[in-house]
Specification:
The protein has about 290 residues and is of the alpha/beta class. It has helices at about 20-30, 45-50, 55-70, 90-110, 130-150, 165-175, 185-195, 195-205, 235-240, 265-285, and strands spanning about 10, 35-40, 70-75, 115, 150-155, 180-185, 210-215, 250. Helix 1 (about 20-30) crosses helix 10 (about 265-285) and helix 4 (about 90-110) runs parallel beside helix 5 (about 130-150). It is globular, with a radius of gyration of 18 Å.
């Protein structure tokens, strides 16, 4: 279990090669100095099938967590990009609710406290007033389910304008006031959609349950190496220090699955990312070092 006297620093599951077993993913994260892993349930059939894991499969994951002393406190639930609540297709919306219900139950069984939502009304369809209304209805029902289970749903600040800023997220928080409906800012996305990131963070600090640390540059939201984008990390960490944010930070990056990676190579890749981020945190006066 990680030290609660410092800010925990986690790694996104997709930063590790798809070829790795869960045991290897836990081992790599631990070896690179991370406190936790954020599990991915994306729109692929392989990852959506995790929502149907048996109790024995779930217990196997829990045993790996105990063995490697690594936890999974958060879930990145991006499967709703393909099956959004705002879709005008009723069958798609039914699938969205099915995914949500199963994700909440899986979170309960794995000990996950927070499900990060892909905050799109629609992604592969045209957005309009009707899709936005349907999205809001979907969020209301989802928060009801999550609150009964004691699991927090947190809107990610996304890579599209729909909820690309905390201000836009607050619009929904005000319509669904609940201790189980919060926000999960992404430094990289927020940087590209806001000219005043500090004010955005200040606006949403009381509703923030975790923060993605990701590099981006104008128009590019994925696979930008740390240090090669435009995210002012030290400045952002400084603002979070000023706001007394003491919660989780999650490094979001993606492994290159086009080539094989050994355990040593994977550990070195995510360790370098951790070193980069922790340097920026130290400069801002935030303690995350083990």
């Amino acid at each position: 279990m990680y030290d609660i006297k410092r800010n925990p620093l986690g790694i996104y599951e997709k930063a590790l090669p798809d070829s790795f077993s869960w045991k290897e993913k836990f081992q790599a994260a631990k070896a690179a100095g991370y406190d936790y892993i954020e599990i991915s349930i994306d729109e692929s059939e392989e990852r959506l099938s995790r929502l149907d894991w048996t109790d024995s499969q779930i217990e196997e994951i829990r045993e790996y967590m105990r063995q490697e002393d690594i936890v999974i406190p958060t879930m990145c639930l991006s499967g709703h990009r393909k099956y959004p609540f705002g879709s005008k297709n009723m069958e798609t919306r039914k699938k969205a609710f099915e995914i949500m219900e199963k994700a909440i139950l899986l979170a309960q069984k794995l000990g996950i406290r927070c499900i990060q939502l892909a905050t799109y009304d629609v992604y592969y369809e045209e957005s309009d007033e009707q899709t936005e209304k349907l999205f809001l209805e979907g969020m209301k029902k989802s928060v009801e389910m999550a609150s009964r289970a004691g699991v927090i749903l947190a809107m990610e600040i996304m890579d599209t304008k729909f909820v690309g800023t905390i201000l836009r997220a607050v619009h929904y928080l005000r319509q669904i006031p609940s201790p189980y409906f919060k926000i999960y800012p992404d430094m990289g996305n927020l940087t590209q959609f806001s000219s005043d990131v500090g004010s955005e963070l200040e606006l949403g600090i009381a509703e923030t349950v975790a923060i993605h640390v990701k590099e981006t540059k104008p128009g590019v939201f994925k696979n930008v190496p740390f240090g090669e984008g435009t995210v002012p990390f030290t400045e952002i960490f400084g603002k979070l220090k000023e706001l007394n944010y003491t919660g989780m930070f999650l490094i979001e990056m993606w492994a290159d699955n086009t080539k094989g990676q050994s355990m040593e190579e994977a550990v070195e890749t995510i360790r370098k990312a951790r070193d980069f981020v922790e340097d920026k945190m130290r400069r801002a006066g935030i303690n995350s070092a083990a």
